[in-house]
Amino acid sequence: MSGKDFRTRLVEEGILIPGGVDGLWGRSGVFERIFDGLDRAITDAGAFARPEVMRFPPAMSQAVFEKSGYMKNFPHFAGTIHCFCGGDAAHHQLLGKMQRGEEWREQQQPSDLVLTPAACYAVYPVLARRGPIATGGHLVDVQSFCFRHEPSPEPTRFQFFRMREFVSIGTHDEVMAFRQDWIERGSAFATSLGLPFEVDVANDPFFGRAGKLMADSQRSQNLKFELLVPVNDDAGPTACISFNYHTTYFGDIWEMRTPDGAPAHTACCAFGMERLVLALLKHHGFDIDSWPSAVRNILHL
Ligand code: 5GP
Ligand code: ZN
């Protein structure tokens, strides 16, 4: 794609609708048509394994969020929900402040809700409540809007984005076999969509000075791989799918057990839906009807 940069074209064509804050985007019918196709294609790709389907709202309970340990590792990404809980006098005061352009949000009270940072976080407490994981492991297909406070002008960095994941819970061998299988399936999926990509070891952007050690350790243990597609102009490739092995981190936190009583291991394959839509637009152009028919077939377009 030559001439105007990718972001400018997306905005000019109305595919992305600027929300007035970096990383806050509305999306057009064309974008959502591709999104829906992708969603169905991922369902098709995972159907053989008959996963249990779970869908969650974009927020989770404070209790679950706290227990997940997110604030220890990623406090810079988290978003909490605050609401007005006062009476008439406080309301009057608030409107006055707003009208005068003063800070009014200090009157807002914390709610019991926190924005969901990753789709799979909502799954673990649900499974933990059910008792030991079945022999052979368990597989969940989850989707959630996720939030990360990471404002950026790059169109591939949404502050709110949808994450679709297959999550495996079981023994070490079960979840490692799942992850290897999905690195291969994810690669075959990207190939079938006509996307150029590479798969590479990666790390999460852990916070602070201790975060550097966490990131190094995550890398040296090969806990995270990413499928990277060139999407942005003049920038490195973008992580569109990630393949994560969490060891017994969530098994320990939630006391999820395998049938022999040992802490469960978990792994997930996470599809960044908006990023994949943008990758398809980048590589096949903005006119869906002119996309290769094999790609349109896979996406039910
Ligand atoms: P992870 O938990 O590995 O950081 O994220 C899982 C997947 O969500 C990533 O592979 C990526 O495709 C997607 N993702 C992560 N951060 C963002 C973001 O800021 N914007 C968008 N659109 N997708 C993201
Ligand atoms: Zn996950």
Can you describe this structure in just a few lines?
With 301 residues, this protein is of the alpha+beta class. It is 38% helix and 24% strand.
Low-pLDDT regions: none
Chain-averaged pLDDT: 97
Query: Overall 3D geometry?
Result: globular
Overall CATH architecture: 2-Layer Sandwich
Name of the CATH first level: Alpha Beta
Q: What share of residues are in beta strands? A: 15-25%
| Strand order in the sheet with the most strands | 3-7-8-12-11-10-9
- First and last CA, distance: 22 Å
The fourth-level CATH homologous superfamily is Bira Bifunctional Protein, Domain 2
> Strand pairing plus helix content: what structural class?
alpha+beta
Helix and strand pattern: HEEHEEHHEHEHEEHEHEEHEHH
Number of structurally distinct domains: 1
Describe the structure.
It is built from 11 helices and 12 strands. The chain has 301 residues and is of the alpha+beta class. It has a single domain, classed as BirA Bifunctional Protein, domain 2, CATH 3.30.930. The strands form 3 sheets. A 7-stranded mixed beta sheet has the order 3-7-8-12-11-10-9. A 3-stranded antiparallel beta sheet has the order 4-6-5. A hairpin with a 6-residue loop joins strand 1 and strand 2. Helix 2 crosses helix 10. The two termini are 22 Å apart. The structure holds guanosine-5'-monophosphate (5GP) and zinc ion (ZN). The site of guanosine-5'-monophosphate has 17 residues, from strand 8, strand 11, strand 12 and helix 10.
